[in-house]
Design goal:
Helix content: 40-55%
Shape: rod-shaped
Distance between the termini: 84 Å
Number of helices: 4
Order of helices and strands: HEEHHEH
Structural class: mainly alpha
Number of strands: 3
Length: 201
């Protein structure tokens, strides 16, 4: 004899009905805690979320300023070999003079080579602050040295006139002065070039 309720011939009682789902969040009788909706959108990919910070843009090109700097350096080198002045049919340039005299031609060649090197560096690496600052400093020295030499040539002309000597001023120093001013302008242009940050979309 089998126990009560275990006889397969006796019908089983019906199962209890499933409980209805709770009202949604915000409805009467619903939960006061919002249901988990998953992780928020990725940074900068959802409305109301800030954009991800962009990487640094490349350095701005300073092609014009660097090219001007190179041209100025070439002019300084060229002017050192041109005639600075002539006394009684004797031509003098930046490398002429008696033994022991100070010759400023090598100085201007040095400044010119530096200017050309600074310009090439700016073209290759774009704007480099340290190179731009050095270019301004050295080209400023070149301008001051050219003005000083022009003053010396003017004094030499007055002295030659006092002794009745024929004196003619050549183009060399003026080319150097123009070249140093051009190089200084190019150096300032490269230094003044500001980085333009792209606008965020």
């Amino acid at each position: 004899m089998s126990d009560f309720g275990s006889d397969p011939m006796i019908p089983q009682p019906p199962a209890a009905p499933a409980a209805p789902p709770p009202p949604p969040f915000g409805m009467p009788g619903g939960s006061t805690v919002p249901a988990y909706q998953g992780y928020p959108p990725a940074y900068g990919q959802g409305p109301g979320y800030p954009m991800a910070p962009a990487g640094k843009p490349p350095r701005p090109a300073v092609t014009i300023g660097a090219a001007i700097l190179i041209v100025g350096g070439v002019l300084m080198i060229l002017g050192s070999f041109l005639n600075w002045f002539t006394v009684d049919n004797l031509d003098f340039n930046g490398f002429s003079g008696e033994d022991g005299d100070t010759k400023d031609g090598p100085v201007f060649v040095f400044f010119g080579v530096l200017a050309v090197g600074f310009g090439i560096a700016q073209l290759a690496a774009r704007k480099v602050l340290a190179v731009a600052i050095l270019a301004v400093v050295f080209t400023s020295f070149a301008v001051l040295a050219a003005l000083a030499d022009l003053a010396d040539v003017s004094d030499a002309k007055d002295l030659a006139s006092a002794f009745g000597l024929e004196f003619n001023t050549g183009p060399g120093l003026y080319v150097i002065l123009v070249g140093s001013l051009v190089a200084l302008g190019g150096a300032i242009a490269t230094l003044a070039k500001r980085r333009v940050w792209p606008k965020q979309a």
